[in-house]
Structures are given as structure tokens and as C-alpha cells.
Amino acid sequence: MIRLLALLLLVGPAAAEEVARHRDWSLDCRAVAQGETSCVLAQRLVAPGDDAEIAQIVLRRNAGGTALVLRVPTGVNLTQNAAYRVDGGAGMPLRWTACDAQYCLAVAPLSDGQLDGLRGGITATFGYQPLAADQAVLFDASLLGISAGLAALD
Description:
InterPro entries: IalB_sf (IPR038696), Invasion_prot_B (IPR010642). Helix content is 17%, strand content 50%.
């Protein structure tokens, strides 16, 4: 778990050893041990005009299945789950699991049905409640390329 969190906090253009684009998603791979590579499918969302990171959405496979991880800047209300919905469908919760000085991570294991929903979707809307605001922060992520990216993770 610690290694996963460390990898997710480092994912980005400077940290990735190999990056393959799948439309709006990047397959980022890096060596984690001698002869062992770990890959994640990621999309980084930035604010228009100033390039400030709004969030990073990461999909990672392991022996237990596939997990969706949302990374956002610190300052979130950890007592309320983050959530996402695909194309206006039902909301799916993400549980806050860790924060460091810069980011907080929310995670949800994905069922086969949820993965199929992501593959068949166009847009996922994510949201979370900041500490210092009455309104939730909502943002959209494109799902274009997620099917090819997930296939490349296998």
C-alpha cells in the first residue's frame, strides 16, 4: 500500500519512465524494483489559463482488481467522501485514504460493471467538499481513450 501511494504521488511527466498516450489518458510506467515495473493509467486535469493542477485521476490494476484513485490538492473535508458519476449516472463514492503536504488521495475499488461503465462512458464528473467552502468542487474528466488504456494495463 505504501509503495502504491508513493507511486501515485509521483505520477507525472517527470516521474514516468515510459509514457504512452491513449487519447486523453496516459499510461505511465516506472521501475519500482529490480526487474519490476508498475504502470498506471492517468489523466491530469489543470485549470484553464494557469496550469494549476485541479486533480489527477489514476486507474491501477493489482492482484485484487482495479482501483480508481483521485488525487487533489490538500484542503479537503475528509469527513465527506469524494464521488464520481459517469455521464450523469449514479454517484459512486471514493474513500479518502491518505494526505501529504500537497495532495490527498481518495480510492475506490472498481467492479467489472463499474469498469464497463467507464469504458462505455464519455465523461466522468468528480466532486469533493473542500474545508473552506460551502459548495462542492466539481470537475469533468474525459473518458476518451480509457478502453485502450485499460487494455494496455493488462
